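New to this. Comment on this protein:
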Amino acid sequence: MRRRGPVVVAVAFGVAALIAIFFFVLPKMSAVSKARQDVIKEQTKEQALQIQLAQLQQAKQEAPQTQQALSQLKVEIPPTADIPGLIRVIADAADETGMNLATLSPGAPTVDGSGKFAIIPVSLSVDGSYFSLQEFLVKLESLPRAMKVIHTQISPGTPPYELAISLDVEVYTTDINIAPPAA
């Protein structure tokens, strides 16, 4: 029996150690492992937030330039159609370049596919010399209103050495209430 006593005590200590490991150490190891995963997840979130913060700080620094670009865009694509103002701008460009404005007829506005802009089609015809025509086209390109030339037709004018040009142009506005939706 004496020899069995130390063995029984050793087995009891072994069983107690296994129970202690099973009930105390393994749950703590699992909690530590979960805590490590949570730390990694939070570090990833922190990195994403740091990137977002850097982007927001850059946007804050660029805000004056962005505001200036938006102001310029508001001039190029005004909040109202202002057809009389558009006619004046084109007529002034023709006068300044020595072109004779034969016709200028705005069409019915339509809303573009995105629903954010109204497109005003404008047909115009001018005639004059080659150099006046070239200057008129440059002037038309640099007008304060944003325009897109859709179709151009150049033909000989009535007096010799004169040219006539017909343009189909799209002019834009953010006033979508003036136009029916595009088909």
Remarks:
- The chain has two domains: 1-76, 83-178.
- The longest helix spans residues 4-76.
